[in-house]
Write a structure and sequence with these properties.
The protein has 9 helices and 15 strands. The chain is of the alpha/beta class and about 325 residues long. Strand 2 and strand 3 form a beta hairpin. The structure holds threonylcarbamoyladenylate (TXA) and magnesium ion (MG).
Length: about 325
């Protein structure tokens, strides 16, 4: 009989950072909390570690990864910052903003991690565990969300284990993540373009820049043979088993209900994103509530309308993806 592959679980702390950094240096895979969602980290400069990471996630290898670094100085060794990118980084890092920028000619990140593109996604996370790990390891860490490809992103260590136990080396348990949806992605290649709404509200970015962001072309408009701008934006990406019915104004007896706002009654499974209608709280609850309602075994989940402002834009984006037909 072959031994069960095992995944170590360690509580956050300085010993965890040391053990995790050693694991990364040996080419291993480490899941760790960031302020947005848990990431699955690998040494960004080690092509075979990155290959193992894609395999563990079951992720199509054309989908490039975000390089996580300690600060702006470290990011500037990987990517070229124009004045707009500098302003965004200075205003919002560390924090839930990823910048897609031209890759430096001597950028040490493996070509596999950037899927052969001449751009690179970089981010400085704002979570003490992520920051300590990056500082201890001393090199960029590529980290997609720590879920199987096509599944909902993890906001607790238990979510990570549900998807990846036995497939990765170590999980640092740092409790629940605070933001709850992935980082906002802005490309500064030509004019600043929103590639993915996320944990930093669009309004905060446009207020700083003083003008609107350009929009990424819709995935449907992208030719099949051309890599989409943010390939993770494929229509069906964050998929629970249950069918999602969006903008529900009523609920069937056999549906689970994902509520938003005050006082709703429902006899079957129900969870509320935020009783007081707070979009920040709703974002933090989104993925764990989706997982829990999915686990209730309901065939369908009715989702109440969520306003399209602030973090509501990212919430609605993830809900639409979770509701999209499967099959790619
Ligand atoms: O909050 C987050 O961003 C989390 C935490 C762990 O940092 N990470 C995350 O990574 O959400 P992932 O791999 O699930 O999503 C990264 C997205 C994908 O949609 C990918 O296609 C896009 O970033 N991306 C990465 N590099 C890119 C590039 N050079 N050009 C365009 N899109 C890129
Ligand atoms: Mg992901």
């Amino acid at each position: 009989m072959s031994a069960e592959p095992c995944t170590r679980i360690v509580k956050a702390g300085s010993e965890a950072a040391t053990a995790a950094a050693q694991c990364l240096a040996a080419g291993g895979l480490v899941a760790f909390p960031t302020e947005t969602v848990y990431g699955l980290g690998a040494d960004a400069t080690n092509g075979s570690a990155v290959a193992r990471l894609y395999a563990a996630k079951g992720r199509p290898s054309f989908n490039p990864l975000i390089a996580h670094v300690a600060d702006l100085a470290a990011a500037r060794r990987l990517a070229r910052f124009d004045p707009t990118a500098m302003r965004l980084a200075q205003a919002f890092w560390p924090g839930p903003l990823t910048l897609v920028l031209p890759r430096m000619p001597d950028c040490p990140v493996s070509d596999l991690a950037t899927a052969g593109l001449d751009s690179i996604a970089v981010r400085v996370p704002d979570h003490p565990v992520a920051r300590e790990l990056i500082a201890t390891f001393g090199k960029p860490i590529v980290a997609p969300s720590a879920n199987r490809s096509g599944h909902v992103s993890p906001t607790t260590a238990a979510h990570v284990l549900a998807d990846l136990r036995g497939r990765i080396d170590l999980v640092i348990d740092g409790g629940r993540t605070s933001v709850g949806v992935e980082s906002t992605i802005v490309a500064c290649l030509d004019k600043p373009t929103l590639l993915r709404p996320g944990g930093l509200a669009r309004e905060a970015i446009t207020a700083l820049l003083g003008h609107p962001l350009a929009e990424a072309p819709l995935v449907q408009e992208v030719e099949e043979d051309e890599a989409p701008l943010a390939p993770g934006m494929l229509a069906s990406h964050y998929a629970p088993q249950a069918r999602l019915r969006l903008e529900a104004t009523s609920v069937e007896a056999d549906e689970a209900l994902l509520a938003f706002g005050p006082a709703v009654e429902h006899s079957a499974a129900m969870l509320n994103l935020s009783v007081r209608g707070d979009l920040v709280e709703a974002a933090a609850n989104l993925f764990s509530h989706l997982r829990a309602l999915d686990a209730s075994g309901a065939k369908a989940i009715a989702v109440m309308p969520v306003p399209e402002q602030g973090l509501g834009e990212a919430i609605n984006d993830r809900l639409r993806r979770a509701a999209a037909p499967r099959g790619h």
